[in-house]
Amino acid sequence: MASGFYTIPALLMLLWSCTINAFVLPNSLYKPSLTSSSPYGLQTYLTESSSLATARTLNGALFATASNGIELSRILYDSTSTAFDAWEWTAGLGAPAALIAGAVLVTLSETREDFTPRKNDLKWVRIMKQSCRVLLLSSFAFELVSIFVSTITGSVLLAHGECLASKAVGYASPLGLLHHHHEFEYLTIQIGFLQGLFNWLFATGIEILIPKKDETKSARRMNVALSSMLFTLMLWITAFYNHHLSFYSDYAQMLKRYFALFFNRYVNPVRQFRPMMLLYVPSFVISTFLTWRAFRSPSEEDDEDKLATK
Description:
A hairpin with a 2-residue loop joins strand 1 (about 65) and strand 2 (about 70). Helices cover about 65% and strands about 0% of the residues. It has two domains: about 25-75, no CATH class; about 75-275, no CATH class. By secondary structure, the protein is mainly alpha-helical. The protein has a two-stranded antiparallel sheet. The radius of gyration is 24 Å and the shape is globular. It is built from ten helices and two strands, in the order H-H-E-E-H-H-H-H-H-H-H-H.
């Protein structure tokens, strides 16, 4: 009954968004303004003042070009060979992300019964069990997003030619090309892979830390030590990653920049209205509410005897 309640409005909004996409020209929402300082098709808006447009630096991560309604259609690179090398990087990162995603699925399936909240569990044990499942599923989602975005970005990199303008951007590396033209995609791939790894390690550490039935004192001490090792490993990975970053000072700055780009591209209707935001924004709100309700579920409702008789 509840699923039907949410399905009907979702279908109506989907039908409406498809109608909007079919009959409303995307160019009516915004008009690209190409200048000599943006030979690669990076756009600003004609409604903005010239000083404001200059302040925005015409970053391709914030402003996607539109030609006949097709985003990124006018982007050109300094060198197609550099773009090909960037594609190889996106393709190569998919393999380790897939390995982590597979390991996460195995952990999630093997621990499903152990992570079921029981009526006699302590409050902190219930929270850790629920947090562990959320971390595992989010880890799988992060790795899946990293694989998906790297695949699509690779297709974009191979779809555009070289710039014929006399003034080139001047990036000398494949990742420099990615950062200049596709910063949002670059951050999504990097953060998705690393955060998925962190969530998996953190969930594994929590799983070891949760008290087990008939656990001896020696086993308990060993489990606490193993969990501490994993948390220490996470801290060292963060330090190593921060030391080897090229375009940002640390991982925190990457997250800050990513959230700003994500909001401007997919949430801010003033910047650019996307009909699909009428679906994924309410869906996110509903998912957040359902997660909050799951964590707030009282232990008195977990009647295992009634569940066994069903």
